[in-house]
# Entry
Amino acid sequence: MPSRWWIPLPDARPDRVRLEHIHAAISRWFDPDTAAHNAPVKRYAISPLASDSEGELGCEIAVLERAASAPPEAEGTLTPDPLDQLRQHTRPGSNIRLGTDRVSVGAPRRIAGEAWESLGTPSGARSWELEFVTPVTFRRRDRSSPLPTPPTLLRGLLDSWNYCSSLPAREVDRSTHDLIWVSDIAGASEPMKLSGFTVSGFTGRVTYRCDDAAVADIIDGLFRLAPYSGCGSARAKGLGVTRLTIPDRRRSSRTTR
# Structure
């Protein structure tokens, strides 16, 4: 089940915490070796340090567990359950190092969650508004672009779906990309430093539409996955944190804490 969790970090000092610090500390919970750390698709995503509605410092962690209805994994190929890993590293008394500071970790609180099987059931929506609350960028080889075009955005969401759900693979044929279009955009892009590199990231809202019912039913679950998987590159480093509103029904998955 894809889910999002709030992790209290009450001792953190915002003026001393960089994106790289959060990534270095928490990615260790989920990546047991170098191969997992360098994998292009992750079963988790991490937000930057932030405050909740009550002023508590912490960060969000999204985890993508295998679907309950997925076939059993073959012996010797079992993948670690990301939710088990999250719970293991947030037990009472846990702490992490953020830069030069040692910070206590509070008990995780679930913010939202939805089963893969539910995400796979079309909602009937024909438009989806994504809000990128942290900069989103899309890397391809040595290039970085802030433009969340439908093909680029859906490629990453499709990878997360096919790799993490363990359900039969979905496909979005390139011939269908012309049926998905951007009807509204509000935001801005700006350069930012990330791990020593300069990338351009977009922050704001984009509304996507699809007027073909059959195609809309296929991509609906991918857009609804975005708040759990994040979008674009460096999702484990705090980029591409995403919220969803379905304008047709004003049904929102924005954080409520």
About this structure: The longest strand covers residues 180-194. Confidence is low (pLDDT under 50) at residues 250-257. The radius of gyration is 18 Å. DSSP finds six helices and 14 strands in the chain.
